[in-house]
Amino acid sequence: MTGQPSAEDFGHEPMNIITNGKLRAVVCARCSVWDRGFNHVDWPCTSAIVLGLVARESS
Q1: Nearest to 30, CA basis, from 52, 14, 8, 19
Q2: Could you give the residue ranges of the DSSP H alpha helices within the chain?
Q3: CA distance 42 to 27
């Protein structure tokens, strides 16, 4: 995470999940929540794509 959310990204930014010293997943810091366990949303989330934070994949 890079710190405070900016007006452009609304907090949607990649966050590394590391377990036992190994990268386990890259998730969206804004969409993922800690509530009776960790419910994560893989990066890039739909909001990041719509906001133009990442390129859309071509079909």
Answers
A1: 14
A2: 46-50
A3: 4
- Write out the E strands in 1-59: 14-19, 22-28, 33-34, 38-39
What does the pLDDT look like over 21-54, one tens digit per residue?
Answer: 999 999 999 999 878 877 899 999 999 999 999 9
Environment class of 49 (CB within 10 Å of its CB; exposed 0-12, middle 13-18, buried 19+): middle
Domain locations along the chain: 7-59
Residue with tokens 């036992």: 20
Residue with tokens 């810091």: 29
CB atoms within 10 A of CB 58: 4
Residues 6 and 20: their CA atoms lie apart, in Å, by 31
